[in-house]
């Protein structure tokens, strides 16, 4: 990297060089990584890179890019390096205190939104909880899309709640969300008062978590991923607690991992408090949301 001359390096040349550099060193998604980081240093979008591909980089821009590349070489996720991740076409702040929002979680928004849409005709106000809100993506998107919803966002991490609040402020819904620290639902009084509970709780079995690539395992919070032996420790507790907080006809919508939907369906059936579950598949056709 140090041998790279600082002048005459155009955007395209730098991109080509850094892509093969990252790829040769086993960094995943070398091209998107290089593009996102370079765009971040230049203060523009990824598309801008290609619109100005023959523009030479300045000294400061090159040195910024080298610093960020170095972090990516250590497998740090690009989202933590730039502090940003898009979700539901909105820009969210992310830090290592929270899980990086995944695209498949948008399915949980869809399921929740469809339910809220149905409620809209009947009630002036619906109340929903996002358990383990993390960066707050679910709470913020649902609050934004459904102005009649009163949202409660729970997390056991204070840092996560602070970040979720920041994200809510950036998207103009801070006033509409209560942020509460606690383990699952324990901080709330068990009164059947909510219409909807959504959660992207940790569900990765511990043995699988141990085998995750460094990008995830060494950087993202274990608390948000590791769901214990079969991955369902947290979901099991949530399924047990949820009926105490839901109104009759309320909905519990959970994101689950590959191969877990049948087990979660059984958990829901077992308690006797829920009607038969509905399962939705994500864009990879993996059963992803159980409600
Ligand atoms: N989808 C995440 C992953 O595969 C896991 C999220 C979770 O445990 N809730 O890394």
Automatic annotation (TrEMBL):
Top-level taxon in the UniProt lineage: Bacteria
Respond yes or no to whether keyword Methyltransferase is given for this record.
Answer: yes
EC number(s): the record gives: 2.1.1.297
- GO terms (BP aspect): methylation
Top enzyme category: transferase
Alphabetized, the UniProt keywords read:
Methyltransferase, S-adenosyl-L-methionine, Transferase
Q: Where is the Methyltransferase small domain?
A: 122-204
Q: Any idea where the Release factor glutamine methyltransferase N-terminal domain is?
A: 14-83
Q: Which GO terms describe its molecular function?
A: peptide chain release factor N(5)-glutamine methyltransferase activity
| Residues bound to S-adenosyl-L-methionine | 132-136, 155, 200
- Catalysed transformations (reactions): L-glutaminyl-[peptide chain release factor] + S-adenosyl-L-methionine = N(5)-methyl-L-glutaminyl-[peptide chain release factor] + S-adenosyl-L-homocysteine + H(+)
Function of this protein? Methylates the class 1 translation termination release factors RF1/PrfA and RF2/PrfB on the glutamine residue of the universally conserved GGQ motif.
Q: Which PANTHER family match?
A: HEMK METHYLTRANSFERASE, MTRF1L RELEASE FACTOR GLUTAMINE METHYLTRANSFERASE
Q: Which NCBIfam families does the entry link to?
A: hemK_fam (TIGR00536), RF_mod_PrmC (TIGR03534)
Its family?
Belongs to the protein N5-glutamine methyltransferase family. PrmC subfamily.
User: What's this protein's name?
Assistant: Release factor glutamine methyltransferase
State the gene name recorded for this protein. prmC
